[in-house]
Amino acid sequence: MNAERLALSAAVLAALTFLAGCAADPSLTWQRELVGTSYIDQTHDCRISAPNANWTFKMASIDFGDGWTILNMFRPVYNCVILIGVSQHSQKDLETFAQVGTFIPREAKFTYIAGMPCHYSAKPMSSKSVDWLVFVYKFVHNNVGYVISCGYPSQWQGDETLAAELDEILNSFEFVTGPSPAAATGGAGRASAGEKLVRVAVLDIVDLPTGAPTQVTRSLTDEVQNQCMKSGHFELLDRREFAAILKEHDLQAGTMGSGQLVIEAGKLLGARYLLTGNLGQVGESSVIYLQVCDAQTGQIIRTASVRCRGSQDRLLDAIPSLVTRLSAPR
Fold it and tell me: What is the pLDDT of residue 97?
């Protein structure tokens, strides 16, 4: 490992130190493997892939307070380092997890990874007289806190090739057992994998900052509707009157997170399930998030998210993969 990579690793590792304390060596043998350009970790319930063979993987077990670094990814030429870390102790929720360590919640942005709510922050750092850009993503799944830290020399900021590869890597992250948002809210009413969902109301995707639909998000909603119909996994209701019905009862698609509002909207629309979503921005990347809620229980049963850069056409191109993930959750 050259001096520049050592310096960058130190900077990224500093960002990854997310809890204080001293963890003992693992008492179990982690079940994980490298398969081609993918890392699969059964113990920590995750997998991640590189977009090409230019990325190298190194499995790790480095103690950082209450967490472990489990994977080191490196991209030559750009001297880009990605580290994956997991908490040692149970994490109850994202907000609590985000309050500790070098991550700064007040500077964080809200986004999604693998369909799960995620906090993101970026910070400039210096090491060995070199300036770096370091990005930190924190999220919680099944009471495990995950941290993805990425860093590279600031000279590569704005490089389209590197940015596209990083988006692909973050899009590839998934849980081995699949996301289970319903479990976090009680688990009742969760549709089984592959089950066709009937009487599904597709509501307008909204702009995340404003909570309202835009011309772009309406185009994305139309494409979601088209792809759901093509998939054969959804029986859709006619959505032409949805906006008027919700407006008449002072309800908005942007407020359909989960809970009682979902139940109320489901009754008004005659829906068994509600499919909602939002479009947000993280740096120069757009993030599309979709979720399916059970209108009888108000619980989220399926989620999916994807990052992409560029034009509206690229956003539309990302919809088929999102619908596929909603159609056949792991």
Answer: 85
